[in-house]
From TrEMBL:
Pfam annotation, one family: HTH_30
Name the record gives this protein: PucR C-terminal helix-turn-helix domain-containing protein
Organism: Nocardioides lianchengensis
UniProt signal peptide: none
PucR C-terminal helix-turn-helix domain mapped to chain residues: 105-161
Upper taxonomic lineage: Bacteria, Bacillati, Actinomycetota, Actinomycetes, Propionibacteriales
Length: 177
């Protein structure tokens, strides 16, 4: 364990089970478990990348635990926040609007894509009716202005960036010109 500053502690802990942070406990950023000195370095680098993603979110919205697996590509894309914001908008179109209706659509599509386009599985995870998922997916495609299958990997990464970073990568109201 090594204090980094007045607010941060770097620690390498054997964690064979899943971490479950307490609701009012500290914020944690973790890397993937690895062995040896090289493993320590890799895990520490991943944890720092996960922390950069977590710290980009306002404290009220910040997850208590951000893992390297959750942060993934978003941590690498955070190197240039302005470019990331422009890219997210280019990929998602008006689906990247920073408001509650679009947030619901983004979350529905993110989960739907994670379930390989299964409306039933997404509905079960989101505690929605299957038809609601179908409706939201259609609305999301309309907001995006093209099918969600077009540049699907980009769509998934952009949605993950929105999920993790929220307003930091989202735009204002859609342009109605």
């Amino acid at each position: 364990m090594l204090p980094a500053d007045g607010w941060t502690v770097h620690a390498w802990l054997p964690a064979p089970g899943a971490l479950t942070p307490e609701e009012d406990g500290p914020w944690l950023a973790v890397g993937d478990p690895a062995a040896g000195v090289d493993g320590f370095r890799r895990t520490h680098q991943q944890a720092r990348q996960a922390a950069s993603v977590a710290l980009a979110v306002p404290p009220a919205r910040r997850a208590r635990l951000t893992s390297a697996a959750d942060a993934g590509l978003v941590a690498l894309l955070r190197a240039d926040p302005d470019a990331l914001r422009v890219w997210v908008r280019a990929v998602l179109g008006d689906l990247a609007t920073d408001d509650e209706p679009h947030a619901r659509l983004r979350e529905t599509v993110r989960v739907w894509l994670a379930h390989q386009g299964s409306h039933t599985a997404a509905a079960a995870e989101l505690l929605l009716h299957r038809n609601t998922v179908q409706y939201r997916v259609r609305r999301a495609e309309a907001a995006r202005g093209r099918p969600l299958s077009e540049r699907r990997l980009d769509v998934e990464v952009a949605l993950q960036a929105c999920h993790l970073l929220g307003s930091a990568v989202l735009g204002g109201a859609p342009d109605r010109r």
